[in-house]
Amino acid sequence: xxxxxxxxxxxxxxxxxxxxxxxxxxxxxxxxxxxxxxxxxxxxxxxxxxxxxxxxxxxxxxxxxxxxxxxxxxxxxxxxxxxxxxxxxxxxxxxxxxxxxxxxxxxxxxxxxxxxxxxxxxxxxxxxxxxxxxxxxxxxxxxxxxxxxxxxxxxxxxxxxxxxxxxxxxxxxxxxxxxxxxxxxxxxxxxxxxxxxxxxxxxxxx
Length: 206
Hints:
This protein is of the alpha+beta class. It has helices at about 10-15, 50-65, 70-80, 85-95, 100-105, 110-120, 155-160, 195-205, and strands spanning about 125, 130, 140-145, 170-175, 180. The chain is built from 8 helices and 5 strands; from the N terminus they run ααααααβββαββα. A hairpin with a 2-residue loop joins strand 1 (about 125) and strand 2 (about 130).
């Protein structure tokens, strides 16, 4: 199954929350009516089953990070094999993806744009080119824009937009050098409150 290329608002409306799929300074509710579910005349849904809730939560988190089904399951399996909370481990693994860090550091307006920057070899990790969006970063890793890409207007525009986004404590960005550092492991408490990751654990534990 290929990556979704359809309307971004449709996905946020389906999950009834901002999946941060679109760039811009306006709130997503000014672009997409989150109360209006996709479908002709709005979709009218009956009572959702436990399985339905679990599935929707998996889809919400998967789409938020732009990860396809098969890789997402592998992330879950890796998280389940680690010590501690499987749900928290899953979110930390997703947050430490290189494309997500490029977005968190403000070098891209969306995670999709961040994936493109990585794929086009515009990103260095600890001084070496890394062109794999799913590359798993670690504490103290330094992520920076490659010299030949620093003049791109979209990066400057993204940095301006990032000033109006909520920042997270585990990354630090040097705006002048276009360089960022992973200061610590992600804090799950700083992630969207809508993420009921225990539902994903219940889904995959069946």
